[in-house]
Amino acid sequence: MNLKSIHNVYFIGIGGIGMSALAKYFAVNGKNVAGYDRSQTDITNSLSTLKVEIHYNESIDLIPNQYKNTEDTIVVYTPAIQSNHKELQYFKKNNFKIFKRSEILGEITKNSFCLAVAGTHGKTTTSSILGHILKEGSVNATSFLGGISENYNSNLILGGEEVSVVEADEYDRSFLRLSPNIACVTSMDADHLDIYGEAEALTNSFQEFANKVSDNLILKKGLPLQGFTYAVNEKADYYADNLKIKNGVYIFDVMTPTEIITNVEFHLPGKHNVLNAVAALAMANIYGVSLQVIAKALLSFKGVKRRFSYKIKREDLVLIDDYAHHPTEINAVVDSVREMYPKQKVLAIFQPHLFSRTRDFADEFADSLSRFDELILLDIYPAREEPIEGVNSKWLLDKIKLTNKQLSTKGSLLKKVKDSSATIKVMIGAGDIGELVEKIKKGLLNED
User: How confident is the model at residue 3 (pLDDT cuts 50, 70, 90)?
Assistant: First the structure.
């Protein structure tokens, strides 16, 4: 496939975070871009400003005529789209060239020097830090991100075609389509068991990904792979040491195989984010960026939206928004909150993501959610799944060892959040809970 010869690119599920980054990439590189999504969001609005045509009703009639030409059009779809989607079926029946998002990313990485970030947790923050470091270091890279970078207000950091930064997604084994030169593995916790069946199959998939790396592999110390290791507060090839917090900012030294840099400053809360920063530092340094340039970039990194994002930050009231949807990620949020606010009461508002994930990790979810002081639990967000009998939020709630816990609908959520006496309120989940954050923020500030 020669991407340069394609004129029209049509996306089914164009509003997804990974899909929209590709759509932006093609739009700014002179392609005609259009697509379908089921709902209008800030992401689809940002695409519309690039003259991308988007419709929100599933209909063949709404596909613009110029995208019905099999010679000049490729179709890109996300695995979250059902196989019986009318538009997808139309393109299949008419023999269009149809690709998964991962296949298109695979083509891009095949034709560039690729830095890929893999792992069940930490991919988005690590790749965003890495993309920012390369930008600040005058490396002309294009970075495809799985979240909205606060520095660029985008999930795409534009650059040239010679170097790419991508998230290597283990879901659906997508990362096996990439051609990484330098790669990082941040974590290999069991997840996506609806795809893999057992944790061992996931581990094998990561080993297969590692085997695809042509130059250097960097991995969190302790993972069962071979490569450069990184860590925090323990010796590794790259590690952060002498970690301290001053005025809410992490300050630490970084040891590398050949150098030491002292008093690196980093503004994101949580030791897991320091770990992400060290991973990005290692990748950039191995690529050839100096430690001094990296340290300057880390100082100016503002974070990723929905990754411990402060929506309200006052002494008497804090509202935090986070994408956490796996027990390990929830534990990282709890650790960060407790570190920043050790003496204050914390309310969590959680929307479970996927029936299968809730079923597979129910006890782990219960343990992590029990670490908050109060909990409000929303219904499970189904995403691509059908309900599983007996798996629901009431079933999960009964497992959670908290006195102050309750279920809520979206409609009654604001009242319940306002009724809570907790000064720290954390909204977590990967479903559509992110769309409720602004409403909750305005309600808490009495702006509704």
Answer: confident
Rg (CA), the chain: 22
CA 208 → CA 92, 212, 316, 386, distances in Å?
A: 30, 7, 49, 30
SS3 assignment, position 185: strand
DSSP secondary structure letters along 369-425: HTTSSEEEEPPPB-TT----TT-SHHHHHHH---SSEEE--HHHHHHHHHH---SEE
pLDDT tens track for 186-198: 988 766 555 655 7
Instruction: Count the neighbouring beta carbons within 10 Å of the beta carbon of residue 333.
Output: 26
Write out the two tokens for 182.
Answer: 């330098």
C-alpha to C-alpha distance for 143 and 389, rounded to whole angstroms: 41
Q: Which of 408, 409, 338, 412 is nearest to 368 (CA)?
A: 338
Name the pairing type of β-strands 141-149 and 73-77: unpaired
Per residue in 210-255, pLDDT (tens digit) is 999 999 999 999 999 999 999 999 999 999 999 998 877 899 999 9
How far is the C-alpha of 301 from the C-alpha of 128, rounded, in Å? 9
The percent of residues above 70 in pLDDT, for the chain, comes to 98
Structure tokens at 156: 């795409």
Report the alpha-carbon angle 57-60-64, nearest 5.
Answer: 90
H helix count then E strand count, the chain: 15, 21
Q: What are the φ and ψ backbone dihedral angles of 109, each rounded to 5 degrees?
A: -70, -30
Instruction: Kindly state the tokens that stand for 318.
Output: 């804090």
Give, for 356, the enclosing helix (H) or strand (E).
Answer: helix 355-360
Cβ–Cβ under 8 Å, residues 425 and 320: yes
On whether the CB atoms of residues 22 and 107 are closer than 8 A, the answer is no
For position 67, what pLDDT does the model report?
96
pLDDT for position 170: 81
- Quote the percentage of the chain above a pLDDT of 90: 75
DSSP letter for each residue of 249-288: EEEEEEE-SS-EEEEEEE-S-SHHHHHHHHHHHHHHHHHT
The model carries a pTM of 0.83
